[in-house]
Amino acid sequence: MKKDLISIKDLSSAQIENIFSLTGQLKKNRLKFNKVLSGKTIALIFQKPSNRTRVSFQVGMYQLGGNSIYLSPSEINLGVRESISDVAKTLSRYVDGIVLRTFEHKTVVDMANAASIPVINGLSDFSHPCQALADVYTVKEKLKKLKGKTLVYVGDGNNVCNSLLFACAKAGLNMNVGAPKGYQPDKKVLEESIKLAQASKASIKLFDNAIDAAEGSDVLYTDVWASMGQEKETEARKKIFKEFQLNAKLLKSANKGCLIMHCLPAHRGEEITAEVIDSKNSVVFDQAENRMHVQKAVLIKLLGDK
Asked: Cβ distance 290 to 284 under 8 Å?
């Protein structure tokens, strides 16, 4: 792998498959890898609050024999109290890797450019690579294969959607996106993912109707309608996205046994109903668990001894 993990776009199909292979080994035999990052430390710089990202990285690093240091927004005040470049260069003298969860994607890029150690994007407004890797891994784990299967994402064309487009295209998993006009995924991401999908013999399709998008799907996926930083738009978005709710009606358009996915946190009764997220087809908490296993594989690839 490259020095950093900033976007799924930066990974090759072979690298994604290698991460998945190592993830499977980590899940089967945790103790085999309990000293592989002994003596290594990562810094967690979080400008946004987190449940899954923080806990999965901290526990994952501990299970690999390493350490983690959490740096809250008030402790760093990145770009205000101290420049991004200075923080990156200083931490490069202390720790072996940085996980950055931030608002602007440029912050992650600037951090990676200034640091001499690996930087992992824990979330930005453009990309959420660890989430997408865990999602596609979960689909492969549950369905046993990706080729010929279709994941349908309904809702806001946000950072998770962007990363899923790149991940599905490179892994050979078909993907349909159902989103209202004005809230569809980044046009450039869509164009690039369509080209990447041609190489893996997958398809990427865009719909402005959730029912049409979900037709014949093997996986139905959604995310919150208003992400962190968009709270003032919440009420307006509820009206715009009301026909894009993942509910029993939408599930009828999917294939029998269709998997239900959500990256969490979920706003039950908004983008997804309690009936669906708690159904037997839901693998929401399996994908949450797989965040840790996939991230452990990424940490080994980036920080482990060659």
From this structure: no
Residue 246's DSSP bridge partners are 272
Q: Is residue 222 part of a domain?
A: yes
Q: Is residue 19 part of a domain?
A: yes
Of these residues, 52, 58, 101, 156, which one is catalytic? 101
For residue 259, the enclosing domain spans 130-287
Amino acid at 165: L
* Torsion (CA) 54, 108, 185, 10 in degrees, nearest 10: -100
Mean per-residue pLDDT, 105-124: 97
- Cα of first residue to Cα of last residue in the chain, in angstroms, is 11
Q: What is the C-alpha separation between 306 and 297, in angstroms, rounded?
A: 14
Residue 279: what are its φ and ψ, rounded to 5°?
Answer: -75, 170
Question: What does pTM read for this prediction?
Answer: 0.96
Instruction: Please provide residue 230's backbone torsions phi and psi, each rounded to the nearest 5 degrees.
Output: -115, 20
Query: Is 1 among the domain residues?
Result: no
Q: Which of 4, 58, 125, 128 is catalytic?
A: 128
